[in-house]
Amino acid sequence: MKKHTIFMMVFIMVFLCMSSQAQDLLSPSPGKSLLYFVRSNGTGALINFKYFHHDLYLGKFSGMNYFIYETDPGEHIFWVGAENREFLEATLEADQVYMIEVRPTMGALKAAVKVFPIDPNDTKTVNRIQKILDKKPPIALDSETFSDEGESLSFYIENGMKKYQTDKTNAKPFRALTPDYSFTKITTQP
């Protein structure tokens, strides 16, 4: 009986140690900023969301997953298109990593989208995001793969940027990704 108890204790300790290990975030290239776009909810899993950086089409994907995007530091507009268009204003610093959560919501005809900067101090959200990062590798969005699709979206992109400018002119508030939302390493909390 004593051997069985010791075996169970060792097994539980090993399991707890393994489950508390977290994937380290990648580092950006020197002088660059790195963003993780994480779709963390299975609602509307079959609906592709389209991702943009200003007027640049980054690609699309559906379901719970994520991709990583590297860019220059500074002021940026990121947006995601579904039934609606959701904008996020970002101020990025060099050599920093940021996370953006993309949440499907109910739309009138299909899934709509909301975009949230992830606060590194929000343990509940960080733990939920970490589970996705630990389960699968990022989706590789290759600009060449989407270049033809991006060209066919030129009208959509133009209208998206006009909507952003109109909303900005009308003082519509946008969520903001600020430099203090940068991550160095995330680990799950037990």
Instruction: Give the overall form.
Output: globular
Number of helices: 4
In which order are the strands of the major sheet placed?
3-2-5-6-9
Compressed to H and E, one letter per element, the order equals HEEEEEEEEHHHE
Approximately how much beta-strand content do the residues carry? 25-35%
What helical percentage do the residues reach?
25-40%
Please indicate the count of domains: 1
**Class by alpha and beta content:** alpha+beta
Overall average residue pLDDT? 81
**Rg calculated over all Cα atoms:** 19 Å
Number of strands: 9
Describe the structure.
It comes from Algoriphagus jejuensis. Keywords: Signal. Residues 1-22 form the signal peptide. By secondary structure, the chain is α+β, with helices and mostly antiparallel strands. It has 4 helices and 9 strands; from the N terminus they run H-E-E-E-E-E-E-E-E-H-H-H-E. The protein has one domain. Strand 7 (96-105) and strand 8 form a beta hairpin. It is globular and about 40 Å long.
Could you give the topology of this structure?
Blueprint (H helix, E strand, L loop, with lengths): L1 H19 L12 E7 L9 E5 L2 E6 L3 E7 L2 E8 L3 E8 L3 E10 L6 E6 L5 H13 L7 H10 L1 H16 L5 E3 L13
Parallel strand pairs: 1-7, 6-9
Antiparallel strand pairs: 1-4, 2-3, 2-5, 5-6, 7-8
Protein name: DUF2846 domain-containing protein
Keywords: Signal
Organism: Algoriphagus jejuensis
